[in-house]
Amino acid sequence: MITVSLRIRDFEVPSGTLSLSRGHVNNVTYVRYAETARVNWTRNIGLHIDPSNKTQWLNLVSSRGIGLILRSIKVDYKFPMKSPDKITVYQKLVPDPSSSLSSQSAFQLQVMILSEARQRPAARCHEDIVIYDYKKNQKTPQTPPFIYEQFKNMWKLQEEAKKDWQDRILDIENRVRTLEVESWDRADAVEDTGSA
């Protein structure tokens, strides 16, 4: 099963993307990472999740018919990545498609670019994407059904995964609290202040 957060693995940080003056990855490169991830995300949906509409999903990254156009991107840089490094890019669909996408021709993705070397986010992006009909030279009046159905399913899976992880976190917190109460946070516990 493919997870909702499809990702690019082992995307090398080539030396040519370094800022010569500072030795770190140039800020515009993060936008390229997000774009590459969005293209792979779209292709992976067609190849692995919705193969019955594979051609339509693959065409979304071209200008042959219905396609995707980045309307805006906001990037929050967390720290300067340096070569050598590898990144993983995660996307999350927002907001709930049943509340907003059914009558619109746009959607949004939250993106996290994770540095494998530092094991933390190097940047977070917010993409606003328009669904565009290249044959009519205009935005689509609404989200095409093949996209809308997959987005509804993605949203459902994201929400289920979110609840599952929240439950796991709560379980860990409860087990830690139980250990605290059984060991040092007891009513009869005496604090050891050391010797003078």
Describe it:
This protein has 196 residues and is an alpha+beta fold. Helix content is 37%, strand content 25%. The protein has 4 helices and 6 strands; from the N terminus they run βααββαβββα. The protein has helices spanning 27-49, 54-59, 97-100, 145-183; strands at 11-12, 66-77, 86-94, 106-115, 120-133, 138-139. Strands 1, 2, 3, 4, 5 and 6 form a 6-stranded antiparallel sheet that branches. The longest helix is centred in the last third of the chain and has 39 residues, at 145-183. The termini are far apart.
Summarize this, please?
By secondary structure, the protein is of the alpha+beta class.
Structural category is: alpha+beta
Give the fraction of residues assigned to helices. Answer: 25-40%
What are the segments in which pLDDT stays under 50 over at least 5 consecutive residues? 1-16
- Gap from first CA to last CA: 62 Å
What is the strand tally? Answer: 6
Q: What's the shape?
A: elongated
CATH C-level category: Alpha Beta
Per DSSP, the total helix count is 4
Strand content: 25-35%
CA-atom Rg in angstroms: 22 Å
On the 0-100 scale, what is the average pLDDT? 84
Helix/strand order, N-terminal first: EHHEEHEEEH
- Give the full name of the CATH homologous superfamily: Hotdog Thioesterase
GO molecular function: fatty acyl-CoA hydrolase activity
InterPro entries: 4-hydroxybenzoyl-CoA_TE, HotDog_dom_sf
Pfam families: 4HBT_2
Organism: Penicillium angulare
